[in-house]
Amino acid sequence: MSGQDKSVFPQPNLLLSSLKVGALSGSAGLIYGGISGVIRSPNPVIHSIASGIHWSVCGTSFWWLRSNLLSLHYEDKATPQQRSYVSALSGGVAGGTVTRMMGGRLIPGVVIFSLLGFVGQRSYNAIDAWQLERATAPSKPLLQRMAESKWIPLKSLSDDEYKGMLNEKLLSIEAEIALIDDKIDELRLSKSRDPLLAPELPQPDANGAK
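and the corresponding structure tokens:
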């Protein structure tokens, strides 16, 4: 199998993939229609079914149009930004047309489904870039990732940085010891020069006893 050319295998069916996207969109439409129907419609079941059909047809049309644009115009080599524009255009055309055919208004359908297509594609691009960055980045131990996090007041130090920090502390301690020695020498010198600071010797009493 490894020596065979991958081009001999059939490509995924565009219609089948479009129907899968339509089924997912229809499921989301059923949920949305059920919730909104309970809130504002006297017939929530009919409202939910209508929303499911609406979203299903929009999802199928959107994916079919988007896939054809990317394949024919960009030859499946579109950049993430171009994919966002194509998704917005496909969403607007498909959503506006289907909304108008089902008795809705054209402009709101174009605007809403264009935004859905654009935001959805941008979100997918961001997630895909994040996963690619994680896959290519070298794995780090948990403690190192915690130390590099800006939310944890810790810092990861290399061996050289740790040695430099110890040397700085050692120099600081040696400087403090030198200052203390200088103060001790000054006290000794001042005591030797000032007789009042010298210890008093015991004086003999009248009987000659000390």
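(Above: one complete record from the training split.) Residues 159-196 form one domain.
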